[in-house]
Backbone:
């Protein structure tokens, strides 16, 4: 895979995801610090941690895409959807990145790259060594025809 170059859109996906991850980390830390400043905010603290978690996942995904020896990864549409959902936190940058990622994931060159990336490393099935099959013959037993049983008579229900 080292001889093949990544499409420009894949590099753009990786860089945008990395920057969005850093922004989400910062956004989550600022929201958490703001929430800790108030008594009611302490109750809402778990909600403010979500952008931080998304930022961590974005950075991990971007690192896999940017590595010199690419790892098999799929296009992460759930990550893009969660980026779009950060509109509820007021993070417009991640929303724009999420929309662009969904558009870029549908590009033909990007799809082909991910298909090559995920199928390149799979080993071909090894052929089995040839061995002489052992044929086991069953002794032939003459079959005796079974005599059919007498059919049961159907009883009629009274009144019908």
Residues:
């Amino acid at each position: 895979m080292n001889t093949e170059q990544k499409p420009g859109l894949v590099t753009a996906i990786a860089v945008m995801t990395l920057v969005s991850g850093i922004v989400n980390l910062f956004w989550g830390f600022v929201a958490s610090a703001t929430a800790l400043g108030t008594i009611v905010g302490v109750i809402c603290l778990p909600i403010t941690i979500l952008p931080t978690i998304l930022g961590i996942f974005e950075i991990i995904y971007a690192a896999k895409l940017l590595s010199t020896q690419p790892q098999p990864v799929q296009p992460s549409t759930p990550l893009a959807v969660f980026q779009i959902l950060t509109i509820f936190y007021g993070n417009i940058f991640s929303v724009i990145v999420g929309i662009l990622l969904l558009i870029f994931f549908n590009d033909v060159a990007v799809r082909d790259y991910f298909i090559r990336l995920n199928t390149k490393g799979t080993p071909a099935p090894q052929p089995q060594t040839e061995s002489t099959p052992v044929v086991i013959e069953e002794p032939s037993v003459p079959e005796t025809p079974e005599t059919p049983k007498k059919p049961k008579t159907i009883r009629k229900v009274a009144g019908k």
Observations:
- The helical segments are 8-36, 39-43, 45-66, 77-85, 92-105, 108-119.
- The radius of gyration is 32 Å.
- The chain has a mean pLDDT of 83.
- The chain has six helices and no strands.
